Amino acid sequence: MLRATRPKPVSHEVFIRLDPINLADYEALAKELLPYNVWNEIESGAMDEVTTRRNRTALQSLVLRPRLLRDVQHRDLSTTVLGTPVSMPIFVCPAGGHKIAHPDGELATAKGAGMSGTIMVLSTGANYSIEEVAEVATGPLWMQLNHRSPQLTEMLVRRAEEAGFKAVCLTVDSPVPVPQERSIKNRYDHPFERANFRGMNVKTGANVSATGDPFA
Ligand SMILES: Cc1cc2nc3c(=O)[nH]c(=O)nc-3n(C[C@H](O)[C@H](O)[C@H](O)COP(=O)(O)O)c2cc1C
Which end of the chain has fewer CB atoms surrounding its CB within 10 Å, N or C? Predict the structure, then answer.
């Protein structure tokens, strides 16, 4: 008589945590380590995330064309982005508030980008200021800019130029703060410091205590 053989149950003791080796592994680890709301804030996209899902699908549909029978002795991913040399065709996109994940925030990101030989784009809404990041950075820095008023824009661009930033990346798709529906559902609000506006009224640029947050 033929009897189906069941696989033996795997005991929890034999579970082995594999070292992270790719981005998906790091993502899974971050999910485990970060508080639930923080993870959702970082991982979620704008509104109900339809565009995020479409972007992911579109990206996954891209494939690399294999070029066979070439000399692969010296492999080199380096290239340039708008004239800036980088070690690989990847750079750090602007994201506000890195301290949400780690107290070293953008300082650590800047060091990591420099060590990897690539550009870091610092967010207008960073937790460390233009000057603080420039102080520790070893690689090229670009400045992401949300235009909210001529005074604030001029102040940020002048400071970035003074600190050695090489380019300004103007964000044009969020003239008003973009809600993240997951954070609304979680009732998550993270009042973190926007270091570039310490001691200022960010609505007017005047030197009074910080109120409001037009950069969220
Ligand atoms: C948590 C988070 C914060 C972000 N903060 C900013 C920001 O401050 N300024 C900005 O221009 N873009 C910001 N972005 C958008 C990213 O720079 C990037 O354009 C977007 O995530 C799309 O790239 P991706 O598909 O690789 O995630 C943020 C994205 C995330 C996920």
Answer: N
